[in-house]
Amino acid sequence: MSESEYKLRLAQNLIGRGKVSRRDFIHLGLAAGLTVAAADNLFVSVARAEPQRGGFAKLGMAHGATTDSIDPAGYLDTFTQTAFSGAMSNSLTEVDAKGSIQPDLAERFETTDDATTWVFRLRKGATFHNGKTVTADDVVASMQYHMGTDTKSAAKSLLESVTNIKADGPETIVFTLKSGDADFPYIMSDYHLVVMPAKDGKADWESGVRTGAFVLENFQPGVSAKLKRNPNYFKNGKPYFDEVEFIAITDLAARMAALSTGEVDYIGRADLKTLGMLKRKPNIEILEVTGYGHYTLPMNVTVAPFDNPDVRMALKWAIDREEIAQKIFLGHATVGNDNPIAPAIKFAINPQPQHKFDPEKARFHLKKAGMENLKVDLSVADAAFAGAVDAAALIRETAAQCGIDVNVVREAEDAYWDNVWLKKPWCASYWSGRATADWMFTQAYSADSSWNETFWKNPRFNELLIQARAETDEAKRSAMYAEMQQLTHDDGGAIVLVFNNFVSAKSKKLAHGELAPNWENDGLKMAERWWVANA
Amino acid sequence: MNPVVRTVLQRLGLGLITLFIVTIIIFSAIAMLPGDFAKAMLGQSATPETVAAFQREIGIDRPPVERYFAWVGQIVQGDFGSSFASRTGYRRTVAEIIAPRLYNTMFLAVMTALIAVPLALGLGILAALYRNSWFDRVVNTVTLTTISFPEFFVAYMLAYLIISRDTFIGTEFAQSLPEWLAASINWVLNLVPKFPTLANISDQTPFWEHVWRAALPSITLTLVIVAHMMRMTRAAIINMLASPYIDMARLKGMSPMAIVLRHALPNAWAPIVTVIAFNLAYLIVGVVVVEVVFVYPGIGQLMVDAVKSRDVPVVQACALIFAATYILLNLTADIISIATNPRLLHPR
Questions:
Q1: Half-sphere exposure for B19 (CA within 13 Å, toward CB)
Q2: Mutation target among A58, A61, A67, A434 for the B interface, most CBs of B within 10 A
Q3: Are A481 and A272 in contact (CB under 8 A)?
Q4: Closest residue in chain B to residue A160, using alpha carbons only
Q5: Measured between CA atoms, how close is B269 to chain A, in angstroms?
C-alpha cells in the first residue's frame, strides 16, 4: 500500500465522524490515483454508511387521527407507534434487523429451565427525560398499566399469561408466568409495553416523560408531532437527528406529492400504482421489506362445506396466488403457502408441497370429498385489506376452472370486523403478523383464542403449541414448529394468499442501516436508527 | 316595530327551530351508524372486557332518549362535552379539539373569500359590460370549465403542476418533444411559484407562512366557486340593464361603467348576495376534500376523522356548527337583500 492509499484509507474512517471535508477527501483521492468522480462517489458512499449526528428529518406517516394520544394503551396505527413508541420510548427488549431479540432498556434477561420465570436486569444509568433513574418499580407499574380488569389497553391479551410481576431490588424485575414461554422476551418488545415513570405506584403516561431517544416537544393530534434529541440517551452516540417531525398525511396522493416536492424526507406506505413516477426522481429511493403481515381467507372449519378437509384442500389448489401477487399487489408481495409464519421469522419453514393453482389437484380433492362441483360464498370488502374485492374476483375466475363456483359477496366496509369477520363462514382478513411463531399461532390458531378466525381445533396442533412454548431446547422446538406449520398448511382453514411488503420511499438526504422486518418504518424505530447522509 | 328588526327576529326564531330539528336529525343519524363505538375507538385488538369497561365510561349503555336530552341540555349551556379520546384523568373537551380546527377553516374561508368574491364581482361586472365580446366568452368558458371539474381533480392537478415544475424535463414525454418545445414548457412551468403541496400548519405557524401554506387550497377553492358568483353577477346586471330607468341613464349620457356601478348594481344585490352567502357556507362546510388532499387541518377533516373513529361528541358538535353556519349565512343574505330592496323594506 502506497502512502497516499494509506492516507485515503485513514481518511475514509474519519469521514463518518465528520472530520474530513468532501474537498480534502477528493484531493487525497486524486493523490492516490482516483478520478474526481470516483473519489466523490467513494466519499458519498462512505459518508452514507457511517452514521453521523445532526440534522432534521420530516417523516410523513400514513396514519394519524384527532383521537390519537400518547397513552400506550392505544397506539392503534403507525403514527403513534413510530412517534411515541419508537422515537420517544423504550421497551425492555427490541427486535433487530435480523428479526432476533436484543436487550433494550433491559441489559440482560434469563429464565429458569421450564421458562416460567423470567428475570430482567435493567441497564445501569438509564434515565427518564426528567433525569430520574429508571428503576424496577417503574417497570412493574408500566406493565401493570396494561393488566387487570379495568384496563383499556390493547396489550392486555399479551400479558394474560403473566401471573405475577415483582421488583427484586432497584434493578431486577421478575415475571412469573402461568406456563412456560421461551419467547417471552419477544413479547416484552411490544410497542405498547414501554416503560413509564411510576407516580404513587401507578404508571404516569400523561406527562409524556419516557426513556427514549427523543423528547416530545409539540403534539397536535391528527396533524403532527415534533420531537427533539434526548441529550442523555443511554445508547452510545444515538440518536443521530437533532430533531424529528412526524406529519400525518393520510391521503395517498398527498403523501406522494409531499415527498416529490421535498416537503417531507420520508413517507410510509407509498402508492404502488404510481411508484414508477416516484422512481424517476433522481433524489428518491424506494424501500421494500418483506414483513410479517399477511392477507388471509379464513374458512370456518366447523361449517359445511368447509368442515371437510378435502374441500379446504380443493380451494387451496384453486387459487392462483402468483397472479394475485402480481396483479393486485403489483409484485410488492411474497406469495403465501397457507403458512402464516413469515419466512423471516425464527423456526419458519416452507411446507411442501407449495400450494399453487392446479385445477387437476383441485378437482381430485373435490372428487375425494364426494362432490362434482361446489358453490360457496366468499364475503369480502376492502376494509379487510386494500385489493380484497379484486382478489376475490380473480379467485372466482380460477376456481371456476376447477368446477368450484365462488359467489363473491361484497360486504359493507363499515364495521366489517364486527359483522363479517368471525361471523361469515369464508371471508377476507388481515394479520399484521407477530415476531414469533408461538405468538402468531397463539393469537390466531390456538383452540381457545377469541381470534381463532378459522375455528380450527386440531388436538395435535394445540398439544404441540403448549409443549413448544415451554421447550428451551432449540432443536426440539424447531421440529415442533415445523410440524405445526405443516399441519396448518395441510389441514388448517386459512388460505394465506401473500405476505405484504412494506413499501415506503425516502429522499436520499436520509440514510439507514439494514431495515427491520418486524414492523413498518424500520421496526417503528426509524427516528432512533436513521441519520442524515453527508451528501 | 321597524320591519327590518321584525324580520331579523322572525328569521332568528325560525333559525333556532331549524337548529333544534337538526339536533334531532344529527343524533338519530349517528345512532344509526353501524358498528360499536367502543370497539371502533379501542381498535380491533380490544378484548370484550375492555370494550365493556369503555362503554360504561362513555355512558353508551344508557337509552338513546336519555342520552339525547343530556346532550341537548349540555349544548344549551354551551358545553359540547368531552371527546371519546379522553381518558380518566386526562379530559379532552370537544371545544378544545374543535377550536383550532375551526380557526383554520375560517382562516382558509376568509382568505379564499377575500380573493374569490372581489374577483367574481369584478369579472361579472366586466362580463356584463362587454357582454358577448371575446372577453365575456373567454371568462365564461374558463370559469365554467373550472367549476365543472370536481374539486379533488383541480386540487390534484395543481399539486401535479407543482411537482412538474422540477420533474417535467426528465419525463419521457418531455424527451419525445422537440428540444425547444420542452425547454419552453419547462420555462413556463418554472414561472409558477413553488407553492407548498403540504398545507400542514400548526398553532405556532406565523401568519404569513400560514397564508403561504394555504395558497394551493385557497386557489383550488377560488377556481371552484368563482364561476357561480360571477355568472350570477353577470346575469343579474344584464337583467337590470334592460330596465327603462337604465335607458334613461343612458340617454342622460352617463358612461357605461357609471351606469352599471351606480344604477344597475344597487338593484342587483339581492340575487348576488344570496349566491355569495351560499358559496361562503360551502367554504366552511364543504371543503373536506380539499383539506384532505392538501393535508390542511381544518374542521372538515376533523369531522371525517371523527366519523371514522366513531368519536361521537366531536361528530355531533361539527354537524351542529355546520348547520348553524348555514343558517346564519342565509339569514345574513336575507337581511342584506331586504335592506337593499326598498320594496321589501317598506311593504304595503
A1: 20
A2: A67
A3: no
A4: B47
A5: 40
Cα separation, A25 vs A17, in Å, equals 13
Length of chain B, in residues: 348
Q: Can you give the pLDDT at residue B186?
A: 84
Residues 361-390 of A with CB under 8 A from B: none
The grid coordinates of residue A42 equal 467513494
Break chain B into its structural domains and give their ranges: 106-303
CA A443 to chain centre: 16
Summarize pLDDT for B15-45 with one digit per residue, the tens.
889 999 999 999 888 887 766 677 766 665 5
Neighbouring-strand partners of residue A376: A406
Give whole-number Cα distances, B302 to B78, B84, B100, B282, B310, in Å. Answer: 20, 14, 11, 16, 12
Q: What is the pLDDT of residues B122-175, one digit of tens each?
A: 999 999 988 889 999 999 999 989 889 888 899 999 988 888 887 777 777 777
The answer to whether the beta carbons of residues A246 and A474 sit under 8 Å apart is no
pLDDT at A16 > cutoff 60: no
Q: What's B87's DSSP letter?
A: B
Question: Pick the residue with more confidence: B41 or B262?
Answer: B262
DSSP state of A390: H
A305 preceded by a cis bond (ω within 30 of 0): yes
Selected residues 240-259 of chain A with any CB under 8 Å from a CB in chain B: 247-251, 253-254, 257-258
**Residue A35 confidence (pLDDT):** 67
Q: What distance in Å separates the CA atoms of residue B25 and residue B319, rounded to the nearest whole number?
A: 10
Here the contacts of B232-236 (C-beta below 8 Å, separation 24 or greater) are B232/B124, B232/B271, B232/B272, B232/B275, B233/B120, B233/B121, B233/B123, B233/B124, B233/B125, B233/B127, B233/B128, B233/B268, B233/B272, B234/B124, B234/B125, B234/B127, B234/B128, B234/B131, B234/B136, B235/B271, B236/B268, B236/B271, B236/B272
What mean pLDDT is predicted for residues B214-225? 92
CA-based nearest distance B312→chain A, Å? 11
For the segment B94-102, the average pLDDT, to the nearest whole number, is: 90
Q: Do the chains contact at B44 and A417, CB–CB below 8 Å? A: yes
User: Which of chain A's residues have a Cβ under 8 Å away from the Cβ of B193?
Assistant: none
- Paired with A271 in beta bridges are none
CATH number for B106-303: choose from 1.10.3720, 1.20.1070, 1.10.8, 3.40.50: 1.10.3720
Q: Inspect the interface and report whether the beta carbons of A67 and B83 lie closer than 8 Å.
A: yes
Would you say the C-alpha torsion A45, A49, A52, A54 has a positive or negative sign? positive
The predicted-structure confidence for B231-243, as pLDDT tens digits, reads as follows: 999 999 999 888 8
Tell me which residue of A171, A489, A199, A455 sits closest to A348, measured CA to CA: A489
Q: Are B306 and A249 in contact (CB < 8 Å)?
A: no
Contacts of B297 in chain A (CB under 8 A): 220, 222-223
Beta pairing, strands A429-431 & A243-248:
unpaired
Residues of B in contact with A71 (CB under 8 A): 87, 90
**Chosen from A150, A199, A223, A413 to mutate, greatest number of chain B CBs within 10 A:** A223
- pTM recorded for the entire structure: 0.82
In angstroms, the separation between the Cα of residue B64 and the nearest Cα of chain A is: 20
Sign of CA dihedral A153, A158, A164, A168: negative
Burial class (CB in 10 A: 0-12, 13-18, 19+), A25: buried
| Calpha distance A233→A215 (Å, rounded) | 10
Q: Which of B37, B50, B294 to mutate to test the interface with A (most CBs of A within 10 A)?
A: B50
The per-residue pLDDT of chain A, averaged, comes to 87
Going by C-alpha positions, the residue among A460, A450, A519 that lies closest to residue A485 is A460
Residue A1 pLDDT > 50: no
ipTM: 0.81
Answer for the pair A150, B55: CB distance below 8 angstroms, yes or no. no
Residue among B186, B189, B162, B191 nearest B174 (CA): B186
